User: Fold these one by one.
Assistant:
Number 1:
Amino acid sequence: MLNRLKELQIEAINEISNTTDLKELNDLRVKYLGKKGPIQEVMKNMKDMQPEERKSAGAVSNEVKNAISAAIETKKEELEALAIQQKLANETIDVTLPGRTVNIGVTHPLQAVTNELESLFISMGYTVEEGPEVEWDHYNFELLNLPKGHPARDMQDSFYITEESLLRTHTSPVQARVLEAAKGKGPIKIICPGKVYRRDDDDATHSHQFTQIEGLVVDTDVTMADLKGTLLELARQMFGQDREIRLRPSFFPFTEPSVEVDVTCSKCGGCGCNICKGTGWIEILGAGMVHPNVLEMSGFDSKVYQGFAFGIGAERIAMLKYGIEDIRNFYTNDLRFINQFK
Ligand code: FA5
């Protein structure tokens, strides 16, 4: 019996040393040390032994089991170390390989100009307001001194949705909303960027949907000089410190006096070229002093408060700044155009 135990030890250690796989090693543990294994089988005969013989058989069986366990542990450590080495070898990173490029988007030039104008006005103490693109006739026209039937409504051909609602034709209704919400108390200093819509025929300089940035300042001591200074700063920040502006008399029902604002042409510097049609000047926005009727309709005392307002066409600014010749480029989503602004 003792011989059989020694034979089993040699047999097990042989098999253990030949195995190359952790699962196989575990199977060998079950095979030799499990309850139904050959060592337990041999030990069943112990009951027929003399006490002295049984004692030494017990000791030998323990020695054999310990030797097999130790061989399994050693092999396990060896196989685990080998597995880690193989994993490391397989996962080697080649740091010399070129990286995969990620396609990074680019800010649309129209958005870039809007952002730039927003930052400029925020730096001058303005806050940014927004309003709905589907607007009530009341805010788009009536509160801006354009009652129903007023001939100046034809200046902005509109997309009506119902008799009383339309796609806003300018960002000026936001100033009407802000004035109304202020309940007759200034000061107000806001800009409102956003999309506007008109039944204009699309061509190189007109679009049926375009972007305006409205500005409104209302306080107790606001003059035309404040408006002019603000617009000169705007022109110089956007187009260069050597720009000049000129104010031409114009008409808007919501401002009195009203002006159209031109900036010296950035291509020819004012001598006259194809961009400025030989005049040296390019129109960029409409502006004026807020009409007393507009202030009064929103609850402001026009003897105490005055204000100025302006409406910038963002596409026109972007076209001048980047030399873009056709406004439709902003809306055709041609990546060859957009990627030039990377
Ligand atoms: C207005 O819309 C006034 N609400 C501006 C204003 C605000 C005046 C506050 C006074 C006080 P106007 O229709 O001129 O004004 O438009 C303003 C600017 O929008 C124009 O100077 C031009 O740059 C731009 N614009 C007008 N129509 C179009 C169009 N169809 N496509 C692209 N840009 C346009």
Note: Strands lie at 127-128, 134-136, 165-167, 188-197, 209-219, 245-252, 255-264, 281-290, 306-313.
Number 2:
Amino acid sequence: MAMITTVQQHILQQQQEQMKASGREASGTFSWLLSGITLATKMIEAKIRQAGLADVLGAAGAENVQGEQQQKLDVYANQALLHCLGLRDSVAALVSEEDEEPVTFNRDAETGKYIIVFDPLDGSSNIDVNVNVGTIFSVLRRMPAELGTLEESILQQGFRQVAAGYVVYGPSTVLVYTTGNGVHSFTLDPTIGAFVLSEEQMKMPEQGSYYSTNEANAATWPEEYRHYVALLRDGGLGKTYSSRYIGSLVADFHRTLLKGGVFLYPPTEKQAKGKLRLLYEANPLAFIAEQAGGIATSGAGRILDIKPEGIHQRTPFCVGSKREMEALKEILAGVATK
Ligand code: AHG
Ligand code: MN
Ligand code: MN
């Protein structure tokens, strides 16, 4: 019989190794917490697979805090995560794209030591057309009371994340996560309902051959970005790039992780601060990218160094392989690249 490793086993093993290195015992709390996320994503995936059959497509009739139309699946995905995670003792707060304020739990700092931030359903404009969507999450540790309030703990810089991951609901359902010890991916085996290990210690290729951006916005990007994309197109980095853009960040990022290349969402006239959200889109993906050998910047600096000021804050977001990202950084810094 072929041996399999489930994501649950993997997280537990990782925890045990990391704890052993620091001479402590793994309590299992963290893997129990992450099991809340995998359970919720399995519920979301099951719902998505019924889209078109049951009455799960279409608008829910309300707008979220960003003034965007909520789709029924946005609401379902959010509730699945709130429900599965709210029951875990170790959760102090849940922060969601779909909720204006964090949901907090009255648990003492010793017990409720984690904060989970998430985009329950990413790429919701793609649901109705049967194109990949995803879930993105980030886990932060609550600071001890003497060091800061729960609110301050929520607004920690991205480099302090203790874990981050996403699930992409595509032809297969894939979960990718990091706890700061490499990036690992799992594929949902629908016959047993478990995420099974596909690849450990993933590395982003040092250079790829795709750029991924909504080029319809190019006219109002800062000039440097237009120059950069032209450089990729014209062979300035030693090859002629092709473009790929799905419009679901998770899916565009997943391709960039596997194949290399670059994803860009620069500032635009309409969205001077960029469109994507720092806490539950840019930060978790930046953490994963760096762990896989890639680079993520807002254009002004490293994504993971940004000090958040609000939970729904937006940021320009550029992420990808080392070669492409270094060229971008040079152009943004005003250094000429051939
Ligand atoms: P969400 O569905 O969670 O609101 O996110 C949508 C985001 C992201 O998935 C994608 O990268 C981006 O919107 C696409 O924006 P454009 O349509 O402006 O290209
Ligand atoms: Mn999103
Ligand atoms: Mn979303």
Note: The chain has a mean pLDDT of 93.
